[in-house]
Amino acid sequence: MSIEVKHVTKHIRGVTILDDVSLSVSNGAIAAIAGPNGSGKTMLMRLIAGLITPDEGSVVVDGATIGIDRAFPESMGILIESPQFLSAYTGRMNLCLLASIRDKVGGEAIDKVLEEVGLRKDDKRPFRKYSLGMKQRLGLAAAVLESPSVLLLDEPSNALDRDGVRMLRRLILKERERGAAVLWACHDRELMESLSDEVYYLAEGHIDGHEIFAGRGLS
Amino acid sequence: MRCLRCLVMDVLATLRSTGIWLTACAFCCVLMLVALRLEVGMALAGADDGMTFDVAFTLGDYLLGYFAGCVPFTGGDDRAFAPPIGWFVFFLLLVVGLARYPRESLRGFGQQVLIACGSRWTWWWAKCVWVAGSVLLFCATALLVALLFSLIAGSGPSWSVSPDMLYLIDFPWQELRGAPYDALSFMGAVVVVAISLGLFQLCLSFLFGTISGVGASAGLLVASAFGVGPIGFCAFSMAARCGAFVADGWLLAEAIAVCGVVAIASMLVGGIAFNRRRCFGSEDSL
Is Membrane among this UniProt entry's keywords (chain B) (predicted)? Predict the structure, then answer.
């Protein structure tokens, strides 16, 4: 399993945000988290990303326990909340800067991923001039840029037009084909069920149901 | 290496705000030095007939406009506590400028940078270096303004301070050591105090929040001006308490030792606090 969440509980200022949540996502699988606003989807993603730590239970990503073996998963792409970048720089420059920290990919890969998400590599506009949809596309590009083994996407279809949703569908399927474990949350139920191999239903911080879609490689 | 790359990201992310901050610093420094010239001019105008003063307005003289400071408040003589305005404004502007970015950067893009760093300590060290670097730029800006003033006055970049200048700005001249006086002897302490104050506030902002951090730093500045003791380490940046100017004043080695302890403790405590911190982004108020 690439992502294993084991009996995780999280309280914040006396409020139980996640209550004994367990789930797993294997490599080359797409798992969705469904649930109403405030059910704990985003918090669960932050927990898997290592941005917060569980009070009980553990999160294991690629064999490493987050917060014990490693602070953050070694190979992970995230899109949590609305994407934010350095406002004075172009989208390409932002990706170059982000990629420079790990130094895994170069300019060619950046140009390729920009093309994949439907952005122009020679666009000279700074990020602050981008439309909401363009910002979302750039956020997706940043998430998949380094071909991560784990991909966490929180509401990736936000602000995307019809073409954008088609691009998102292609991108997620491509990531699965590559072998990434994809965990995502989406309010568009039709899109979510058409893409996902399995869905975890989250309600008031606990797993309320788990559905596996037959014929998509999972059993 | 990732720490260095994270630092580059910090520098690029703050280019504009740092530029505005340094411009504000230069503007305040100009005001302080103009006020110094007025103060000296008024003192000269009010001097008794027959008294002559020799003030060259060197770089060292102008630096007193920021860092003259005051002696500890002892009460008596029905005198109210009068904080050194120039010194207070300089350090308050310093802490206000440093307050926002480190915590704010944890939102949005900053979270991606944090994750890419792979370690919270790596991210934290980059912020500490960013604070120290920003403080150095701030001090350099103040120094540059004083240097320009001294060049305009035609006195050149001399660190020496005119004894008459100390008398005219109401320095605690009763406690003065004998001349010569040298501004370089306290400028080293100013830089050390400013860096340790910046790191102290960085630590507080991660422990208690940005506004509380600025409030605590302002309180520390007032306490430093008011009294003596280890908690008022900012007083090491005052010429009025420097051993090169006054008897029983502090030595540079003392300032480095105390500020070094504050800086190292701030980096360690702040780093440990950040390692336990939740990173929510825009839902930070949850």
Answer: yes
